[in-house]
Design goal:
alpha/beta; 13 helices; 27% helix; two-stranded antiparallel ribbon; TIM Barrel
């Protein structure tokens, strides 16, 4: 204003059909739906070897379009049959392959940490995730393990053969099914809140019936979560639940997306451990302002979301994980890696499995020029587009993610009344009055409460003062004179 693949085996199964000969290295471009397991099968090279050659610290995180160096592959025929299936399970019954390793293997359900190990590397070897290992072993900081530490492994494990070379059924680890992270997030009911810039008006917020405050954090890529503990504590001291919308620097993603996703996941996990009641994973990732050009896609974002979800739940199972709401727009007329409309973008997310990595679907609605009951008639140049209408937005997101509650992490009505003339790019709201703002917000709250679809309704915004090219103050319910015309209407809509 990103589909986590659970690898069911860390060993590599070499099939007689479709295996490439090994002699040199080649480059592979990751395709939609691929994971490192399938790529390793295709080239007959271990996942760990590919990860090492490409500096991947988490083999569960690769993204569409990523260029991978394949060590030892000759670049020959890549069209051979793939009998492994999308999940990386063994379709041919030969599940006991042994890729060989210099690292000790598990015996009797435990693993002893060796020099050079990381929790992510250990997890990938045994077909699980670092967050599952951290939870199972009560590790508060997944980045801190030590040589000689004995880790419990999920599922049944047996000792393996470290000599390598047996690709047809040798002794290796069978980790069994990996349990999902714990989830006790309260996803039913309806609650009202507001996004505060300065959080200077808690009394007015309470008076409006709000019990949540949303604050946005922009992470610089290195600060620890503890640096933001005061944001959580200040909200709770005022009696509010706190939703943190966590964004970062898009330019930092480009250099190494998979590493950045994991670093970000560790950071938001720390915020969850600090008591955040809900976390929105990034913001408006379908546009260039928030995500790097060339990497914009719902599938790429879902990889970040999956890593963040597991990290958050490992630290605080009751924290509500909200997918980052896209910018509602029809500007792009479709989706590309340089930007996309929210309609096709959320479908990309759904196709990448995003639903399993969220408790609530993030939605933004901030371009209303008509009452929240209207489905047509917006006084704009493109009145047929769904994003002008509250019911259309709700119906779209609910249809793409059926069964998931919606979290309106930004919903507001813009008016310049009492402030000044709106800038040209926002002239579509020139006819909206303060009375409209109060009435329409209250009407949207009433609809959301009765719909059974909406979990959180976060008013954008409470107290912004900027009224330049981005007229945030025009959305604020607390106006420059300190009054809040919408507060009583919101309170009544909440039945208070």
């Amino acid at each position: 204003m990103r589909r986590l693949i659970v690898l069911l085996s860390a060993s590599i199964i070499l099939f007689a059909v479709g295996i490439m000969t090994v002699s040199a290295q080649t480059t592979h471009t990751v395709q939609a739906g691929e994971n490192l397991y399938r790529i390793s099968l295709r080239y007959g090279v271990s996942m760990n070897a590919i990860a090492s050659a490409n500096g991947l610290s988490n083999i569960n995180l690769i993204f569409t379009g990523q260029q991978l160096t394949i060590p030892g592959a000759d670049g020959g025929d890549t069209s051979g049959d793939d009998t492994s299936g999308d999940t990386g399970s063994d379709a041919g019954g030969d599940t006991g392959s042994d890729a060989g390793s210099d690292t000790p293997v598990a015996t009797g359900g435990t693993y002893t940490v060796a020099r050079g190990d990381t929790l992510a590397r250990i997890a990938s070897r045994f077909g699980t995730t670092f967050t599952v290992l951290a939870q199972l072993n009560n590790i508060a900081n997944p980045n801190l393990i030590f040589v000689g530490q004995v880790l419990n492994l999920p599922g049944g494990t047996t000792g393996g053969d470290t000599a390598g070379g047996d690709t047809s059924g040798g002794d290796t680890v069978d980790s069994g099914p990996v349990a999902p992270p714990p989830n006790t997030a309260p996803t039913s009911g309806f609650e009202l809140g507001g996004q505060a810039i300065s959080f200077s008006f808690p009394d007015q917020m309470r008076g409006a019936g709000m019990t949540w405050v949303k604050r946005q954090i922009k992470w610089n890529g290195s600060d620890p979560a503890s640096n933001y503990q005061n944001v959580i504590d200040s909200a709770k001291a005022q009696g509010f639940k706190v939703l943190l919308s966590v964004i970062g620097e898009p330019s930092q993603i480009t250099a190494n997306p998979t590493q950045y996703y994991q670093n970000y996941a560790n950071f938001v996990g720390g915020l969850a451990a600090g008591g955040a009641d809900a976390i929105e994973v990034w913001n408006e990732t379908n546009i260039e302002r928030e995500w790097p050009l060339g990497l914009i896609s719902g599938a790429n974002y879902t990889q970040m979301l999956s890593a963040a979800y597991q990290s958050i739940k490992a630290q605080n199972s009751s924290t509500i994980v909200i997918s980052g709401a896209p910018a509602p727009t029809g500007f792009f007329q479709g989706c590309s890696t340089n930007g996309g409309d929210d309609d096709c973008y959320i479908r990309q997310m759904a196709n990448a499995g995003a639903a399993q990595f969220m408790d609530c679907v993030g939605v933004h609605y901030n371009s209303g020029t008509v009452p929240p009951t209207a489905t047509s008639g917006a006084p704009v140049g493109s009145p047929g587009h769904y994003s002008w209408y509250y019911p259309s937005m709700i119906n779209l997101y609910a249809s793409v993610f059926p069964g998931k509650p919606l979290c309106l992490t930004e919903i507001g009505y813009l008016t310049g009344e009492g402030i000044g003339e709106l800038p040209g790019g926002f002239s579509w709201a020139s006819g909206v009055t303060l009375a409209n703002q109060a009435e329409w917000l209250a009407g949207a709250v009433s609809q959301a409460r009765s719909s059974g679809r909406v979990r959180l309704f976060i008013v954008w915004n409470v107290d912004a003062t900027n009224f330049g090219d981005d007229p945030q103050a025009g959305y604020a319910i607390v106006r420059p004179d300190g009054t809040c015309p919408a507060c009583n209407a919101l309170r009544a809509a909440m039945g208070l």
